[in-house]
Hints:
Layout: H1 24-51, H2 57-64, H3 70-90, H4 94-115, H5 120-136, H6 143-146
Helix pairs in contact: 1-3, 2-3, 3-4, 4-5
Amino acid sequence: MIEHIGGNPAASENPLGSLFKTVAVLRIGAGTLLMVRHGFSAALGAYQFFWQEKPWAWPSAFHDAGLPYAHLLAPVTALVVAVVALSWISGFLTRFFAVVFLPVIITALVLLQKAGAPQVEAAWLYLFITVTLLLFGSGAISVDQLFRLGSGGTNHRR
Length: 158
């Protein structure tokens, strides 16, 4: 049975070449999209709402959805979205932040589906991306890989 096709299988691969063989493209793309479309504006809105006492749509939307403590939950959710996006872009503690993001995206999915909002499709996609990153980790090009975080203790001292 053929297990390898091509050059020397023992030769070390270029990490940039292995970028497209891992989940790193999904992680970086989803993190960038999450930051650009949701994270940055949410964090800015939360900052202005919390520190400058400017009106912001998220707390009233959270209150209308029946969530408790909407004036506190909205800024915390905005901060979580921005931090998760940064984590996914850099590949730092990807699985941990996928676990942190899971309740946020499930709640958003339930509320959007109940309201019949057109963003339900995006919420489903983020849910699938979150589960994929939770299962497969950050990939070859990441801070996790650089420091061997989550590799099961393969970095032994001699």
